[in-house]
Every structure is written in structure tokens, then in C-alpha cells.
Amino acid sequence: MTLFKNKSAFLAVLLITGIQMGQAQQQEKPNIVVFFVDDLGWQDTSEPFYKEKTPINKRFHTPHIEALAQDAVKFTDAYATPVCTPSRVSFLTGLNAAHHKVTNWTNPKANTATDNPDELLTPPDWNINGLSPIPNVPKTIYATPFPSILKEHGYYTIHIGKAHWGAAGTPGSSPLNLGFMVNVAGHAAGHPQNYYGEKNYGNIAGKASYQAVPDLMEYHGTSTFLTEALTQEALKAIKEPIRRKEPFFLHFSNYAVHVPIQPDPRFVQKYLEMGLDSTEAAYSSLVEGYDKSMGDIVKFLKDQGVYDNTVIVFISDNGGLSLQPMRTGPSHTQNLPLKAGKGSLYEGGIRVPLLIKNVGQHERKINHNPVIIEDLFPTILDLAKIDKYQVIQQKLDGQSLVELLTGADENDNWKNRSLIWNIPNKWTVPDGPAINFFSAIRQGDYKLLYDMKNGKVELYDLTKDIGEKNNLAKKMQSKTKALSILLSEQLKSWNAQLPTYKSNGSQVPYPDQIKL
After folding, report:
1. What's this model's pTM, rounded to 2 decimal places?
2. Which of the 8 DSSP states describes residue 219?
3. Is 483 helix (H, G, I), strand (E, B) or coil?
């Protein structure tokens, strides 16, 4: 039995014991790493998310994504929105984009809409300033971002790379206002001005635009590619919480593979030798650079002995870009067998790769249930063992995927849920396949699209027609009507926005009002 000579010594031991117990309790929580890729298509890895490896998969070399898939659940039917900011806000808030009303990308300049002019329709007054953690900021969704919840529960929260949650001058433009304790290179812009250290990532006097990447001054004037610079900053940022044995959340949101499509000198030559043209070789080199970045971080986690106690999520914010002249080849063929690409509500614009590695997982699993990006809000909090938390006012639309990480592949409750998209905006000119003024719903095997501009609906059986070539709307009128009603009811429930006709100012009809 140990005796204490004075009360002070006894209290000191109690204090040290309490601190050690607190640290031990903290260590029980898993670390969480989210690799959030920008504009990466469902087919843009050498790890196939389709039933087979395709010619497009063979254009890419992503060994580290392949390795992660061996320890993870691969979701083949995962979805985001067709453009970046709506997905990013849904991720942080757990809200569907039709609900939070950030339905297009946000301009770096506050109070500036990004819609293009249209001859027939006027987009609604959507939340052009993005997400806000404080009330009464005009044209924002006021909501609780989940990193602030992690922070409140003892997590060291880190953001590296692209943010693009809010317009410059609003609170949501800075990750530091959204629950992150560390922010490197995140601001209001949605893509880098330049990927090259020799060009200071765009920070050149007289030439810098809103897209010039902030921070990273120590790499200016060097040959360090932007992807590599951000990787080095991520490794620096997680060293300290690992040393202190406290749980951390790393949101690693590299700017790759968004335009400008500039070749990564470390990898581009092999793709040129494969016969790809300079643009597609550059694109593949950006993808491999991101893969190498993921591999470096995973290796560091393993070297530090914390990999098994780390949840890892890998996802893209929308489908792959399929527009000329940014990509070469015929437009909207870059995501085959999926139809179209970024900006579209066809599968090529919204189906994204998703891997989730749970704590201690060393087994490859595949899950075919339809899931969507807002599901990650409750999923991450569940995996962090946080079951009691408060949000400002949002009623979550996302559902925790935790049971799918251990349960059966096919689950009727999940398979038959309704996933919703609503894009009442003019993203690009000219209109493209399911690009601009579209809504959609997927329930089970079937997906219905509503073309607001032309007053038409389309129906596809995705299990038999993943390329959405055979419109079944007239052939299966009862199914078409049922999904039109479900989509309309959900849009009304969220008070979702629809465009209006320029001719008379009236709102376009809901999909259940369209005659077949």
C-alpha cells in the first residue's frame, strides 16, 4: 500500500491518473480520414466499381486505391450531386441538396449567382452563398457541420485542400468556422489557378485570380506539384494528434482532378507511351498523383501503428467531367458505360466511387445498395461513437451506413429507399444530356428523370440498362406515375425550388403533373 506524506502529493497523483484515464478513453475513439476527390468519375480508377474492368479503367493506375479496396466495403451504387458545392454542403450537413437549396456551385464572390442565362426559364433564388454556421447570413443554409460535433467530442479536426463551402466574405468560406481546427489551402474558390510550385500555384503578382491557392508559401518557386504539397501538409498535420494519442479527423480534399488539367510530371510519361493524347495523359497523371497521395498517408498511418484504429472513406464529389474542350474524345463518353458526366443527372454525372474501411477491417466486401453523399454525416458520427449531439435546426436526410459495413449486401430497406436530386439551375451552355433544369428519383432498380424545360419524364431500369438508353416511361406508365408522385411529394416536403417561365413568371409544374 502506498502512503502519501501530504495531501498535495495525493491530489497530484489523482490528477495524473485522471488525465491518463481521459487519454485512454480518447484513444478508444477511432481516427477518421476522408479522401474527398474533386471531379473523379466512377470509372476513373484501376479498381473497377462496375461488374467488370472496362477499357476506361485500364487508362488509370491507382494501386493504392486497389489496396484500400482490399480492406474496405466497396459501394457500387453510391451517389453525389452532379456538381461540387451541393455535394460538399450535403456531406457536411447531412441534408439533401434539394433541402439545403445550394443547388449549384458557389461563386468565390459573395452574392453572385453562377447560373448561365436561359431563353426559356429563370432559376430560383437559391442559396448562392453556400453554407453558414451562423444565422442570418443572406442566401445561405444555416446548419451544423459535423466537424464541429467531432471537435466538441474531443477530435482534432483538420482540413487540407479544396473547401468551396461558401462565398468569400461569408463565414462558410473558411473551414475554421465549420469545426476545423487546422486549415491548409481551403477557401472560397472551387479549383486551383495552377498546379505548379514553379508558378506559386497561381500566386504571382498581377496575375493571381480568386483561384490562386492560399498558404503553401514554403513550396513557392519549387518543383513541388500541388497534390504533393498538400500531401506533405496532411502528414505534418496528423503527426501531432498521433503523438498525443488523441483522435483526429482528417478531411483531405485535394484539388485534383479538377481543371485545369495540367500534367503531373511524375507520372504523365507512362500515359503518353500508352498512346493517350496529351490531355487524357495529363488527366490520368492527376489521378495517379492523387492515388500516390492516398498511399503516402495510408503508409504513414501504418508506420505509426494507427491504421487499424482508423476509419477511411474515399469518395468523389460528382461524376467525371465529360465536356469538350476540357476533355478530348466525343463529349459524354468519358464515363462509359455510364451516360454523360459532371453536371448531368444521368448516371455519369452522379454515380461516384465510394470505399469505407472500418476499424480493424481487413476484408474486401461489395455492397450494391443505393447510398448517397448525405449518408456520410450520420455514418461518420456513428463510427466515431458519438450518439448524442445537437444540430442547429436541420432534420437529417442522410442515413447511417454502419449496418451496411457489416451486414448483407442486399437489404430491402436500403434497396427500396428513395434517393432524390433537384437541379433547377443553368450550370452550363449549351444544355446537355440531363444537364440544366432536371430532377430525378431512384427507388430500387428504377430511376425517373424529369426534364423541366421540355416537360418530359424518362424511366430506366438500371439493373438492365445502366447506360440509360431504353426509356420505359410510356411502356411502364404505372411505375412512371408512381415515381413521379414520390418525387413530387418529396420536393414539396422540402419546399424544394423549381425554375419559373420567363414568359409569365409561373413555376414549372411538378413531375406528377406531366402527361405521359
Report:
1. 0.94
2. G
3. helix
Q: In the structure, what pLDDT confidence band is assigned to residue 366 with cuts at 50, 70 and 90?
A: very high
**136 contact partners, CB below 8 Å, separation of at least 6:** 142
Give the whole-angstrom CA distance, residue 357 versus residue 34. Answer: 10
Residues contacting 151, CB < 8 A, separation 6+: 157, 179, 180, 181
Pairing of strands 438-443, 446-451: antiparallel
Q: Tell me how crowded residue 221 is: count the other CB atoms within 10 A of its CB.
A: 11
Query: Nearest-CA neighbor of 357 among 285, 413, 294?
Result: 294
DSSP single-letter state for residue 217: G
- What's the average model confidence in pLDDT over 474-488? 98
pLDDT digits (tens, 9 = 90+) for 60-85: 999 999 999 999 999 999 999 999 99
Number of residues written out for the chain: 516
Task: Compute φ and ψ for 420, nearest 5 degrees.
Answer: -125, 140
What single string gives the DSSP state of each residue in 160-180?
EE---SB-BTSGGGSGGGTT-
Q: What is the distance, to the nearest Å, from the Cα of residue 269 to the centroid of all Cα atoms in its chain? A: 29
**DSSP character for 468?**
-
| Distance, C-alpha 257 to centroid of its chain | 13
Q: How far apart are CA 23 and CA 28, in angstroms?
A: 9
Distance, in Å, from the CA atom of 268 to the CA atom of 248, rounded to the nearest integer, reads 34
Q: Are strands 73-79 and 365-367 parallel, antiparallel or unpaired?
A: parallel
Q: What share of the chain is helix, strand, coil (3-state, %, to 5)?
A: 30, 15, 50
CA distance 419 to 440: 8
Return all residues near 78 (Cβ < 8 A) that are at least 6 apart.
315, 351, 352, 353, 354, 370, 371, 372, 373
pLDDT tens for 30-53 read 999 999 999 999 999 999 999 999
Task: Using alpha carbons, list the distances in angstroms from residue 512 to 205, 423, 479.
Answer: 55, 17, 12
> Per the structure block, which three cell numbers stand in for 276?
493517350
DSSP run (H or E) holding 249: strand 248-253
* Statement: residue 18 has pLDDT above 60: no
Each residue of 377-412: pLDDT tens digit?
A: 999 999 999 999 999 888 999 999 999 998 666 677
What average pLDDT does range 312-335 have in this prediction? Answer: 94
Mean pLDDT of the region 486-492: 98
Single out the residue of 364, 455, 478, 367 nearest to residue 120, CA to CA. Answer: 455
Degrees to nearest 5, angle at CA 234 with 270 and 151: 145
Q: How confident is the model at residue 15 (pLDDT cuts 50, 70, 90)?
A: very low
**Number of other residues whose CB lies within 10 A of the CB of residue 239:** 13
Task: Show the CA angle centred on residue 286, arms to residues 280 and 291, nearest 5°.
Answer: 125
Q: Is the pLDDT of residue 448 over 50?
A: yes
Q: Residue 309 corresponds to which cell in the numbers above? A: 484504429
